[in-house]
Amino acid sequence: MKNNIQLEEAQSLLLNRIIPVGKCLVSLLESSGRVLSQDIKASTNIPPFSKSALDGYALIASDTRQADSSAPVQLRVIEETRAGFIAQEKVVSGTTIKVMTGSPIPNGANTLIKHEEVVRNGDYVSIFRTIKAQDNVIKAGEDIEQGKVVAQKGSLITPPLVALLAGLGISQVPVYAKAKIAFMSTGDELLDPSETLQPGKIYNSSLYGLMARCCEMGGHPLDLGIVPDEIAATTARISRGLEEADIVVSTGGVSVGDYDVMKDAMVGAGAEIIFWKVAMKPGSPIIAAVKDKKLIIGLSGNPAAAMVTFDMILTPLIKRLMGKNNPLPDKIQGVFADNFLKASPQRRFLRAKLERKDGVDCLKLTGAQASGILMSMIGCNVLVDIPAGSGPVIFGQRVSGHIVGNISDGYHQEPVEVYEEEPKREELSFS
Amino acid sequence: MKNNIQLEEAQSLLLNRIIPVGKCLVSLLESSGRVLSQDIKASTNIPPFSKSALDGYALIASDTRQADSSAPVQLRVIEETRAGFIAQEKVVSGTTIKVMTGSPIPNGANTLIKHEEVVRNGDYVSIFRTIKAQDNVIKAGEDIEQGKVVAQKGSLITPPLVALLAGLGISQVPVYAKAKIAFMSTGDELLDPSETLQPGKIYNSSLYGLMARCCEMGGHPLDLGIVPDEIAATTARISRGLEEADIVVSTGGVSVGDYDVMKDAMVGAGAEIIFWKVAMKPGSPIIAAVKDKKLIIGLSGNPAAAMVTFDMILTPLIKRLMGKNNPLPDKIQGVFADNFLKASPQRRFLRAKLERKDGVDCLKLTGAQASGILMSMIGCNVLVDIPAGSGPVIFGQRVSGHIVGNISDGYHQEPVEVYEEEPKREELSFS
With an 8 Å Cβ cutoff, are A201 and B374 in contact? Predict the structure, then answer.
C-alpha cells in the first residue's frame, strides 16, 4: 500500500487498472453522448451520386458556348424529374431535363442552370449566357468519400455525428456499454433527504451529487444508500457493490479516527489496498482498493472534498471505463482574479469560475474554500491548482487549473436578454 | 408575413412567443440537467448545528490558559460521543467530552483539540498548549445560512446543486417539464437509415441529428418521420405534431421550387406565417409560423444548414420553453486561424473550432463550408459570424462567433495520455 501519493500517480495507478466495459449496439438517438466502440468508415459516398444544388435545368455546357443576352440558345425540355426520382432520358446536344434540388444529374448532362435564369416557352427554354461545366453540381462524395474514417473509436458521439451516421445509413451504432457505478455513504450522522431531520444528524448530500455527476457523463449509478459506521455492514455493502457494479464509490470513513472503518471493511471484502491519501487539499483522505480487477474508492465525507476528488480521480476512471480516449480534465491557464491569503503547505485545489475579460482568462473564486463548503462548488467550472509550498495567491498572478464544468458562460460579454417583456399570464391558458 | 429578416429579429420574434411549459416535481437524480422552476431558499442552516471539524476533545478554551509543554493541563473525560449522536453531558470547567468529526459541539464547550495532540491516560487527557475559542468548530450555517436563496428560478441544475439540494433535505425538485418537440422531414428523395439505399435516394440525416440536439438539452423529441413532397400529407403531419408537441420542426420544402410545399402546408394546417427567410448563409430558407400559440419552424433540407439554424434559432426556443433564463448561444471573440477566400455578400456563419494558442482564442475552420457538407459540423463548437458585405476573411483577422458546442477541449495544451500500455487482452476475462 502506498501512502500520501501525488494526484498524477493516483490517476495513473487507477487508470492503468481500467479495462473498458463491453460493447453494444444502440439506436441512433440513444447513441448521442456515448462513446464509439469502433472506427466508423463511410460505406458509401455522401452524397451517393452527383446531384443538383438547385431547381433548374441539366444540360451540356458546350451547347451554351454561343449564348448571350441578345442571342439566346434554345434547348428542348425532354423530361421533368424531381428529387428522389431518376431521369429516364439522356441529355443529348440541343436538349435539357428539368431537375429539382437534390435530383441526380441526368445522364449526358454536365452542368446546371437555375430555373430563374431561363425563359420557358412550352417545351423550350432560352438560355442567355455561357454555362461552365459542373456549375451547381454537387459531386458524389463531396461531403464524405467512400472508405474515409469519419469518426474514430473512443470519440464522443455528438448530434452532428449522429446526423452523419444517419446519412451513412447506420441505424444501429456500436458504442461502449454504460459503466455501472455503485455509490454508498458511511456515517451514523447521515439521513437521506427524504427523511425528517433529527438532532445531531445531517442530510447526506454527497451521494446524490456524485450520482448526478455519474449520470452526466453517461454512467449508470446504483444507489447503495447510507451504511452505519460499522465494519461488517460496510463490508457487506462493498461486496454487494462489487457484484453489481464496475466500480464501488463510497464517501466517509476514510480519515484517522475511532469510527473510520473503510480500510478494514475493504480488506474484509477481500480487496487489496492500492493507496491511502493523496497529497491534495481538499480531498486528501481517499482510499483505493482493488478486488478481482474492480476498483473500490473511498472518498472524504466532506461534500466539497468528495466532489473535488470525484472530478479529478473518479470522472477520468468512469470515462475510461466507457472507452473515452482522453479521460482527464482539460487544462487551462489564466490570471487569478481574486486573493487567497492562506499559505498552501499542501497542494491545493481552489474552486473557481472562468470569466473572460478583454480576451484574458480570469479565474475567480466561487466562494469559501473549506472542505465542508458545498456552496462554492455551484458555478465552479475550474479547479485552480496551487502547488505545494505556495504562499498566498494574489490578484493578477498566473495560475493553472483543470476544467470540471461548462466554461462557455464565462464568455458572455454582454447581456443577451432579447425579450421586451415576460409573456402575460392570460396567455398561459393553452398549456 | 416578414421576408428575409435579420437573425436577431427572427430570434426575438420567436422567443417573444414562447411561454415556458408547465412545472413538475422530479426526484433529485432526475433533476440534474433540468431547469429550476422556482427559487430555492435554504429552510435550515447547513450545517444545521455547530460541529467538530476533527476527531478530538471538546473543552472550554479558558481551561487551557496556563497549559504549556512542560506543564500540561489535565481534563477529565466525562463522555465519548460520535458523529450523529448528541452528548448527554455538559462540559464544565475541568472536564472534556470526546467527539468525532461531524459531532455536534457538546453544551458548555467552546473549542476543540485534535486527538493526536493530547495524551490520554484512563479518564484523563493532558493538553500541552493554550487553545483559542472556536478552534476547529464548524459553525452552524457556515456553508449556507437559513433563508438564503441558494439557486434561482431559471438556473440549470448541476450535480453540485443536486448535492446542495440534498443537503437541504429536498428530495423532490421543482423543475420545468420537458418540452416536447415534434420532428419531420419532407422529401421524396429521403430514406430512413434503417432502409436499403435505392438509386436516386439519400438517407435522411437531419432528423436524427436535430432530435439528438433536442435530447442533449433535455427536450423530448417526437419522431414524425419522413413525409412525401405533397401538401395534404404535410398538412396532416403538421397537425399531428401540433396536437402532440410544443413546437413542430421540419426540414426541407422551404426553398423556391415546384415541390416546395411547406408554406402551403402550414397555411393548410391553419397556421399564420410569421416570416420566411433569414438573412444568413447557410440556412437562409427558414419559415416560421404559429397556430394556437404553438410555433412551427421549417428548416432547410440541407443537413448542415438545418443544424446551423437549429443551433441559432431552435435551441434558444427549446431552452426558453424549458424555463432557461439566458437561452441564446454564448458569444466569443477570437482570431481567425484560417483563410476563407470567398466574399460574403450575405451574413455568413462559418463552422469552426476554438483552439487556444498561447492564451489566444484561435478559431479554425472545421472543413468545407457548403450548405450540404455535414462533415464540418463534426468538431464544430463555434459558428464564426461574418457580417454581410465582407470580403475574404484572412488568417489573423479578429472575428466574433457563437458557442454551439463544448469548447473545453480547445484548451488542451499538452497530450494528457497517462497510461504506459493498453490493458492486456487476457485481463478481459472478468467482464
Answer: no
What would the DSSP string read from start to end of A327-396? -SPPEEEEEE-S-B-S-BSS-EEEEEEEEEETTEEEEEE-S---TT--GGGTT--EEEEEPTTB--B-TT
B145 domain residue, yes or no:
no
| CB–CB contact B48 A197 (8 Å) | yes
Same domain, B355 and B404: yes
- The overall longest dimension of chain B from CA atoms, in Å, is 101
Do A37 and A159 have their domain in common?
Answer: yes
Residue-wise pLDDT for B346-401, tens only, equals 999 999 999 988 778 899 999 999 888 999 999 999 999 999 999 999 999 999 99
Cβ pair A166:B204 closer than 8 A:
yes
Instruction: Find the CATH number of the domain harbouring B298.
Output: 3.40.980.10
Residues 6+ apart with CB under 8 A from A163: B205, B206, B208, B209, B210, B212, B303, B307, B374, B377
CB pairs < 8 Å spanning A and B: 381
Q: Is residue B404 part of a domain?
A: yes
Q: What is the pLDDT of residue A261?
A: 83
Residue for cell digits 450545517?
B47
Q: Alpha carbon of A164 to those of A32, A159, A343, B285, B300: distances in Å? A: 12, 9, 52, 22, 16
Distance (Å, rounded) from C-alpha A246 to C-alpha A241? 8
Q: Grid cell 438560355 — which residue?
A: A127
Closest CA to A169 of B302, B198, B206, B196: B196
Domain-located, residue B431: no
Nearest CB to A82: which of B84, B188, B407?
A: B188
Residues in chain A with CB shorter than 8 Å from the CB of B412 are 326, 330-331
Tell me which residue range forms the domain holding A209: 2-21+178-321
Q: What is the pLDDT of residues A279-291, one digit of tens each?
A: 999 999 999 999 9
User: Are B40 and B167 found together in one domain?
Assistant: yes
How far apart are alpha carbons A32 and A48 in whole angstroms? 24
Which three cell numbers mark A106?
Answer: 441526368
Instruction: Judge if A252 and A196 occupy the same domain.
Output: yes
Q: What value of ipTM does the predicted structure carry? A: 0.88
Question: Are A27 and A170 found together in one domain?
Answer: yes
More confident residue, B15 or A372: B15
* pLDDT above 50 for B421: no
Interface contact B431-A21, CB threshold 8 A: yes
At residue B408, does pLDDT exceed 90?
no
What are A28's three cell numbers? 441512433
A335 touches chain B (CB under 8 A): no
Dig out the grid coordinates for B320 from the structure.
Answer: 426558453
Is B147 among the domain residues? Answer: no
A213 plus A267 within the same structural domain: yes
pLDDT at residue number A257: 63
Q: Using an 8 Å Cβ cutoff, are B175 and B31 in contact? A: yes
Portion 55-84 of B in contact with A at CB < 8 A:
55, 82-84
Whether residue B99 contacts residue B58, with contact meaning beta carbons closer than 8 Å, is answered with yes
A294 and A241 in a common domain: yes
